[in-house]
Structures are given as C-alpha cells and as structure tokens.
Design goal:
There is one protein chain. This protein is α/β, with parallel strands linked by helices. It folds into four domains: 17-130, Jelly Rolls (Sandwich); 156-229, 3-Layer(aba) Sandwich (Glutaredoxin); 240-352 and 481-557, 3-Layer(bba) Sandwich (FAD/NAD(P)-binding domain); 362-476, FAD/NAD(P)-binding domain (3-Layer(bba) Sandwich), CATH 3.50.50.60. Helix content is 25%, strand content 24%. It contains 13 helices and 28 strands. Strands 12, 13, 14, 15, 16, 17 and 28 form a seven-stranded mixed β-sheet that branches. Strands 19-26-20-21-22 form a five-stranded parallel β-sheet. A hairpin with a 5-residue loop joins strand 4 and strand 5. Helix 3 (120-129) crosses helix 4 and helix 8 (250-261) runs parallel beside helix 13. Residues 24-144 form the Cyclic nucleotide-binding domain. One of its GO terms (molecular function) is oxidoreductase activity. InterPro entries: cNMP-bd_dom (IPR000595), cNMP-bd_dom_sf (IPR018490), FAD/NAD-bd_sf (IPR036188), FAD/NAD-binding_dom (IPR023753), Ferredoxin-NADP_redctase_2 (IPR050097), RmlC-like_jellyroll (IPR014710). Residues 1-22 are annotated as: Disordered. Keywords: Flavoprotein, Oxidoreductase.
C-alpha cells in the first residue's frame, strides 16, 4: 500500500470574518425583533422585488421576518453574483448604513417575504437608543465590510503597473478608505494582457479603474474616483452645523466622536482618508489598550465607525481650502468649490512630512519615494534594500516593519543617534536587529533612475564619505510642516506655521488651552503649536476640546 501524503494543516485565522459568520450574519432573538418593530413598519413583499440597488444612498434597514433576501453585485459581463442571503431574523446592511455614501451591492427578495423596514433616519434613532442591538449591528457591519474587502465583492478593478506613482496613489486611496478592490499589476499579473486587450488600452493610458456597472475611469484624480464610487457626501451650503472638524486624523476623529455622542450636529472634512499621519503607520505599539499593537489604518477605521455610529458625517476627499471668519456662523470653503457653515470650528488638519532637498526628488515621489509605510508599500520592498529617513517614532515603526520584508533596511538620520527623538522600545529593536543598519550624521545627496527610483547615494556629513546602493524604495519621515495654508488670513500662527492656542492676541490666557485667537475656532493635535505629536495626546486633545465647544455654544443654544 502506498503511503498517502498527510492532509494540509488548516490554520485558523481569527481575523478572517468568514470564521465569524455567527457574528457577521447574526440571527436576532425574538425580543430584539419586537423592539426593532417599534422603529419600523412591517411589509409583505412579493418575490423579485428590489429592496435597494448598488449606488443608492441612504437606503433603509431591512429585517427579515419570514422569507429570503439575496444580496448581489453585477460582474463585468452584466451577470449577477449572489454572495449572501438573509433569512428569518437576519438583517441587511453594512458600514454605509451609517452614512450617506453609495451602497456597494443590491438586494432583492428571493421569494415572497414578510419584512420589517426601518427608514434610515429611524435606523439612526434605533442605534442610539438600543445599546445591545446596536452592538450586534455594529459588529456585523464591520465584519461585513472586512469581508467585502477580502473577497472583493462590490468593488472595483484597478489595472496598472504596480510601481507607477498613479497606480499607487489610487490603490492607497482605496485601501485607506476601506473600499473593496482588486489590483491587476500589468508588470507581473498574467491576466493583465487580457484586460488591456479587452478594453483596447495602451500602456500609456494606464492606470484605469473599472467598476461592475461598466464605469471606466482612465487615471482619475482621487476626487474623481471618490465621486464615481459614491464616497463623497452632498453638502447643503445653507445648513448650519454645530461643529465642523477639519481633518480626520486621531485628534479630528476623537473630536467627532465626542461631539456627535454629546448631541452636536457634526461634520468632518478630510482630504484623503481617515487617520492622518497615524493612518500610514504599520503598527502603533504604545497606544493605551492595545498591548499587541494596532495599525494606524485599523485604529482610524474603528474611530471612523464610532463617529458615524453617533451620527457624525464624514466628507472624504474634500479638504478645507479657506475660511471666512469675519461672519458668524463661520463658513468653510472646500477645495472643490463647495462650502459649509458651522457655529464652531475645530482645526485638526495635522502636519505633513517635509521633503528632502535633493536634485530630481519630485520625479520619484510615488515612484520610489514614499511618505507612508503600510502593507501596500511593504509589498513593493520584498527582498530588496530600502532606506528610511528620519528619527521619530513613525520612522522607527517603518524600519521595524520593513525589516521583516526587505533584505535590509538602512535608517538615515542627520543627528548622532535616535534616543532624543524615538521611543526606547523602537530604538532597542533597531539597534538589535541584524536586518537594520543605523547611519548617523548621514543624508541623501543623490537619486537616480529611469522613470522609477533605482539608485540612491548618501553622504556622511562629518567625513564626507559617500555610499551608493541599488535601492528602489525610500521612506521619508522627517519633521513636520503644518497644514495651515488655508488659515493664514484668519488665525494667529507661530513662526513655523502652527496654530497658536491658549492666549488671545494681547497675550492673555484664554478659557481653553485649545482656543485660538478667534472665538469659536479651536485647534487640536499636530497642527497646534506646542503639541506633543503623539497619537494618544492627539486623541486626548480631540476629546477634551468638546467641553470648550459646549461652553462656547451654550449661549446660542439657550
């Protein structure tokens, strides 16, 4: 008898939502069904009736009392693909139920059904009032979104060269906004030629984004992509919010959570994606409550979901471009020409990494030079040497993360060491790693490559010695420049452009350490002069500032 090969070992992955189907598609107990019934209306719907369609906004919440509902998306040939069904005491929806974004799938009755319909406004009221039901729904919605991302259902196809700056820009936008997608790398994927031939493309036209409903976008801007996918929200210029938060980093998201949870009508304006600089970090290990660490993107995703659960609106891919602070309510102008009004403004636009002053630098941005270090950028670095420039925690986290992927990591700092600028646990890991070399008193002086980065030269400032290596990827994480250009005509800034807080124009102490020189405008997080530039402190500032906002708004709300 021939010896049989052992069956492959099945490894349980607790992060895979398909291993948590009971939580992903829970069946509510009868008492919960009765309580939800108080917020909706029962309907009997014949088989084949559409409940909602992909692309619709503000759809209703459906709880199946009897029957079967199928959820599906069209494929590229127009055929439907059913990827889940809801039966008795199961409910529809995913994270887009908490905002006005376009839904990513369609649903219809597979047979005659007895349905409980809860209108979108009543759904928000129910979630706020029924804590135990809200917990089940929120967990299910998050798992469903993760499942959509992993399986690619309801998403788009991005076709382009994997090392192209535009391909990376679009993929980064989709990843950071949690939008399901599949990337076909025309440099390595055998399926790429078929796509290019099918759509009669030339390589000069790439990248392209292809939607299930036949949308076809040729190298769109991120705002164009967001509009097409329904990620943006329509803004009523005449509606007056209690609070507008400019920026969705840790400080802005914390402010949104506390403002919305305390009953203030809140909108957050963000140019790219929730998370800010922290959202680009591979892992944050010293944030309270996460002993094994958490990625910046995961932390931002949870905070975003939390803010939306309490009713905060998020306007993604729209950033503040100006403000009229001569009128009250204040009017905030966005970069797409829209505007919105609010009684109070929280400036949380954070800071951006500075750029290197090296000849030819701009031509390699996005094509070898990166300002974020997540799994997406990491896959570009497999088995090659990389450089991390910077001595702060973000640089340290990037170096440690990349040391598990790249063949070697070179950390370049202009100072004599890391101890003064980086947390000790990261310093020790870098010094003890055989895959990381720290180069002190060093800076990049030369970049070379044909279309994409291929060679880097750095120099020791004291000896003048130069080193040239074949390197395709450099991660630049040096210093910070505040995102305050849109505020210069309104608020007092320090000599570096950070917002001055806590004192009025005459130098007297203000009621709040986050108050600016304009009443009703506050600044929190990295954008604030003198802030600590840590995730935990930014979250703290964002949560505490709401007390000052309440005090400011109190007279107008009497």
């Amino acid at each position: 008898m021939s010896e049989q090969s052992p069956a492959p070992e099945v490894v349980y992955d607790p992060t895979d939502p398909m291993n948590r189907k009971e939580q992903m598609f829970p069946r509510l107990d009868p008492s919960m069904v009765r309580r939800i019934a108080a917020y909706g209306q029962e309907e009997r719907i014949p088989a084949g009736t559409m409940l909602f369609e992909r692309g619709q906004r503000g759809v209703d919440f459906f709880l199946v009392l009897d029957g079967l509902v199928e959820v599906f998306t069209p494929d590229k040939h127009g055929q439907i693909h059913i990827f889940t069904m809801y039966s008795a005491r199961q409910f529809s929806g995913e994270m887009n139920m908490f905002n006005k974004r376009a839904v990513m799938a369609s649903a219809r009755t597979a047979m005659d059904c007895h349905i409980l319909r809860v209108r979108s406004d009543d759904f928000r009221r129910m979630v706020a009032a029924e804590a135990d039901i809200s917990e089940i729904i929120m967990r299910a919605f998050i798992l469903r979104r993760v499942g959509l991302i992993r399986m690619g259902y309801g998403g788009v196809v991005l076709v382009g060269p994997g090392h192209s700056a535009d391909t990376l820009r679009l993929e980064r936008f989709l990843v950071r906004n949690g939008y399901p997608h599949r990337t076909i790398d025309t440099e390595t994927d055998p399926e790429a030629d078929g796509f290019i031939e099918c759509f009669q493309l030339t390589h000069q036209q790439l990248p392209v984004v292809i939607c299930p409903e036949h949308c076809f976008l040729q190298n769109p801007s991120t705002s164009e992509l967001a509009d097409e996918l329904g990620l943006t929200e329509t803004i009523d210029p005449d509606y007056v919010y209690d609070v507008v938060v400019a920026g969705a980093g840790p400080a802005g998201l914390a402010a949104a959570v506390y403002a919305a949870s305390e009953g203030l009508s809140t909108i957050v304006v963000e140019g790219v994606a929730p998370g800010g600089q922290a959202g680009t970090s591979s892992k944050i290990e010293n944030y309270l409550g996460f002993p094994t660490g958490i990625s910046g993107q995961a932390l931002a995703g949870r905070a975003q979901a939390q803010a939306q659960k309490f009713g905060a609106r998020l306007a993604i891919s729209r950033q503040a471009a100006g403000i009229d602070c001569s009128v009250q309510p204040y009017r905030l102008f966005l970069d797409d020409g829209q505007s919105l009004q609010a009684r109070a403004v929280i400036v949380a636009t954070g800071a951006r990494y500075r750029k290197l002053d090296v000849p030819g630098y701009t031509q390699f941005e996005g094509a070898g030079i990166h300002y974020a270090c997540t799994a997406m950028e990491g896959q570009l670095c497999r088995d090659g040497e990389v450089i991390v420039v910077g001595g702060g925690n973000s640089a340290g986290q990037a170096a440690v993360f990349l040391s598990r992927i790249a063949s070697h990591v070179h950390v370049l700092v202009r100072s004599s060491g890391l101890a003064a600028t980086m947390s000790d646990y990261l310093v020790q890991r870098i010094l003890q790693s055989s895959s990381i070399t720290l180069h002190t008193h060093s800076e990049i002086v030369g970049l070379a490559g044909d279309g994409r980065l291929s060679e880097v030269t750095w120099q020791h400032s004291e000896t003048g010695e130069q080193t040239t290596r074949h390197i395709n990827n450099v991660f630049v994480m040096i210093g910070a420049e505040p995102n305050t250009d849109w505020l210069k005509d309104c608020l007092a800034l320090d000599s570096k452009g950070f917002v001055l807080t806590g004192r009025c124009a005459q130098g007297h102490l203000l009621e709040s350490p986050y108050a600016t020189t304009k009443p009703g405008i506050f600044a929190v997080g990295d954008v604030r002069s003198g802030s600590v530039k840590r995730v935990a402190s930014s979250v703290g500032e964002g949560s505490v500032v709401i007390q000052a906002v309440h005090r400011y708004l109190a007279p107008s709300q009497v």
